[in-house]
Amino acid sequence: MSVARRFLLLQLAVVALVTVAVSLVLFAQERHAVRERARAVTRAVATALADDPYVLEAAGAPDPHSALQPLTDRLLEDTGLDFVTIMAPDGTRWTHPWPSSVGDPYRGDRSHALAGEVWTSTEHGNLGPSVRTIAPVRDQDGTVVALVATGVLLEALSQQALAQLPAVLLVGLLLLAASTTVAALAARYLGRVTHGWGPEELAQVHALHDAVLNEATEGLLLVDGAGTVPVLNARARELLGIRPEAPGPGRRTAPPVGSLGLPTALEAVLRSGAAVQEQWVVAGERTLIVSSLPARGALAGRGMVVILRDHTEISRLSGQLRATSALAGALRAQTHEHANRMHTVVSLLELGHQEEALDFASADRQRTRGLSEDLLARLDDPILAALLVGKTAAAHERGVELEVVLGPDVPRLPVSPADLVTLVGNLVDNAVEAAAANAAHVSPVVEVEITGAPDDADPARDTAVITVADTGMGVPDELAHRVFDLGVSTKPAGPEGRGVGLHLVREVVERWGARIELGNDGGAVFTVTIPVPRETVPERVP
Q1: What is the pLDDT of residues 49-93, one digit of tens each?
Q2: Kind plus residue range of the DSSP H or E element containing 20
Q3: CA nearest 526: which of 535, 515, 541, 536?
Q4: d(CA 406, CA 393)
Q5: Is 84 in a helix, a strand, or coil?
Q6: Positions in the chain whose pLDDT score sits under 70
């Protein structure tokens, strides 16, 4: 049975019980009111007769019955009382509605009246149980010379109360109809919002909802039109570094987007309400891919579904792949150049110029070993040294001279090799490509300078500064503020896509807590300043 139907039946049962209870209360109140009116009427009539001089005069006459019976008969007709009895102090009736009872003793309590008190009670007489009032008739000396009793039968009171029963029932029926209408409307609303499901089905749906959301490998958020986040699964909290909610009963309040401490780029996406397809965002040490889609179904037009995917591991593997590719390319370039040199040596030997061949081979060996040994001796990072050697060979193959300048105090960079290859490799590749493109105007040169210096802002650490400059055309001013955005590039679009390398560089820099600056000095100049904790700095190489 659906929640709506259960609610309707429960409401109808409650309404029926309430209606019956209200009707009984109203009927009981009406009976009480009728009895109180009877007590008031009997008391008023009895008191009036007791104070009437005619009754006092008739009580002293030889035949009180003949004088008082017509009076009591008229009172019965005018007041609606069931009996008016006037009697002697000893209880002998002088008047009674039944003539046969005249002269018989009064069957009620006379003690209060004989004591001079007007007394109202419920007693059983000749006519049946009744509400009656008995009052004393006093002479000028205060002596009780007669008693007056007036009463209304309980049967008559019940009939008066029953006469009000239709009105009470009408009120109860109106209450029942109104309550039933309200319950039916509420049940209809519940049926619509719960899709006709029962409590067990709703509990199962909620359990499945929690299981799917909390076990999903992707982060899921729902941002409603008010800018709050009613749905935020465990994976999203983990990716964004948001503390899990404390377990407990009660309805959870949806937090506003601004209270979650999200990265600026991600918060802008959530606030915009626009559809986004795979936008890269850096959150702490993680690289996330964000997709935002309009909610469908019951929430159509009132929220956005945001999907977060962790790209950190993929970026790391991609960096390793790029490092391997760069080294492989460098090896291919070196192999190609080495093959040319070997062909030259072989040709000189075949022509009989042994001394020239020996001098050429020795000079080439000395030049190659000189660069490699210098980099390895002055850099405490063999990965970076190998990368620069390979990039030097690759640049030479494209007609670009790559100059590597090392400062006297270069620290070892406390970063992963994959990230280092991503940063230096992308900057050098872009510089070589820009310098080669402008070779018709300027001799193509790329300069890579790596130096170290104390950090002025924090005496407990040093800094490593990597500068990559080229002789290309530089970065246009209109692109300078967004050249690190995904998809933005100064080069024409190619089949493999553009505007990825510098975006990855910025992500790496932000992950390190470093900073990158762009300038134009006869070409583009990129300067990366990396903080290096003092304890990780090795002994300086002179």
Answers
A1: 888 888 888 888 888 888 888 988 888 888 778 888 899 988 889
A2: helix 3-50
A3: 515
A4: 18
A5: strand
A6: 1-4, 30, 125-127, 156-165, 168, 195-200, 202-215, 244-253, 284-285, 297-302, 312-338, 341, 360-380, 460, 486-500, 534-542
Q: Minimal CA–CA distance to 262: which of 253, 274, 270?
A: 270
Cβ atoms 523, 472 nearer than 8 A: yes
What is the identity of the amino acid at 410? V
3-state secondary structure string across 89-147? CCCEECCCCCHHHCCCECCCCCHHHHCCCCEEEEEEECCEEEEEEEEEEECCCCCEEEE
Model pLDDT, residue 249? 45
Query: Could you give the strand order of the β-sheet that contains 401-406, starting from the edge strand earlier in sequence?
Result: 401-406, 445-454, 461-470, 524-533, 515-520
| pLDDT tens figures, 367-422 | 555 555 666 666 667 777 777 877 887 787 788 888 888 887 777 777 777 778 77
The secondary structure of residue 255, as a DSSP letter, is: P
Stated as kind and residue range, the H or E segment containing 66 is helix 64-79
pLDDT of residue 247: 47
What's the rounded Cα separation, in Å, for the pair 82 and 158? 13
Do 131 and 151 touch, CB atoms closer than 8 A? Answer: yes
At residue 380, the pLDDT reads: 66
Task: Give residue 367's pLDDT.
Answer: 56
Contact 430, 502 (CB under 8 A): yes
Instruction: Tell me 259's DSSP state.
Output: G
Taken in order of first residue, the domains within the chain and their CATH numbers are 3-163 (3.30.450.20), 216-244+257-310 (3.30.450.20), 315-536 (3.30.565.10)
Q: In what order do the strands lie in the sheet with 303-310?
A: 231-232, 219-224, 303-310, 286-294, 276-283
- For 465, list phi and psi in degrees, rounded to 5: -115, 120
What residues pair up with 129 in beta bridges, in sequence order? 124
CA distance 407 to 387: 18
| Residue type, position 100, single letter | S
Phi, psi of 218 (to 5 degrees): -110, 150
H-type alpha helices, 216-311: 234-240, 264-272
For 156, phi then psi, to 5°, come to -65, -40
Q: How far is CA 416 from CA 185, 391, 421, 423, in A?
A: 65, 19, 9, 11
130 within 8 A of 123, measured Cβ to Cβ:
yes
Q: Phi and psi dihedrals of 371, rounded to 5?
A: -65, -45
CA 393, 394, 399, 401 dihedral sign is: negative
CB 470 within 8 A of CB 499: no
Q: Give which of 360, 485, 439 is closest to 431, Cα–Cα.
A: 439
What is the C-alpha to C-alpha distance for residues 421 and 2, in angstroms, rounded to an integer?
62
Q: 271 is written with which tokens?
A: 């606030």
What is d(CA 352, CA 358) in angstroms, rounded to the nearest whole number? 11
